[in-house]
Amino acid sequence: MPPRRRQQERVQTTRQALVAAGRALFAERGYAEVSADEVVAAAGLTRGALRHHFGDKAGLFRAVFEQVEAETTGRVVAALAAAPPGGAGFGVLTAGLAAFLDACQDPAVVRIALTDAPAVLGWAAWREIETAHGLGLIAGALGQAMDGGVLRRQPVDLLARLLLSATIEAALVIARAADPAAARAEAEQALHGLLAGLRA
Known about the structure:
Layout lengths: L2 H27 L6 H8 L3 H8 L2 H26 L7 H14 L3 H15 L1 H25 L8 H21 L3 H17 L4
């Protein structure tokens, strides 16, 4: 194997080890309760490796958050693809919402993506990453539904932001409820009601 390729593989392996260790610890205890020393020890690496690849603990957290967001978006995309044919039907929108709420049943998603990320990264950076993943997906689905005559014409970007905020709040309510199953049913019904009010 050429030396350059070996070096690239070592870099990738090191980054993956740090992200995996950080993700497990951040999900279990939260960003504020985890030290950089704990992360590098769990990864079997050094503080120098963390500085080299991510700068600091916050840089590593951003990489972990982006990984969680990409996985969550992947689940929603799969649900949209599996929804009944028609492309822009009401069922496609509700399938996407259901998939997002399903993903948010994972305590790691609640802790990392919904609770810690806005505080650790700041609202602007958090929203930038959300835009690249969930917000863009919601905006695309809403735009298709409007083009297909399923929803009344609205400002897509604003509506997507409002729907994303409502969905995140629903996920947090479910995560903190004494009866998550009942909270999930109520939250999903409420979100469907919001979408139904926009139907053409």
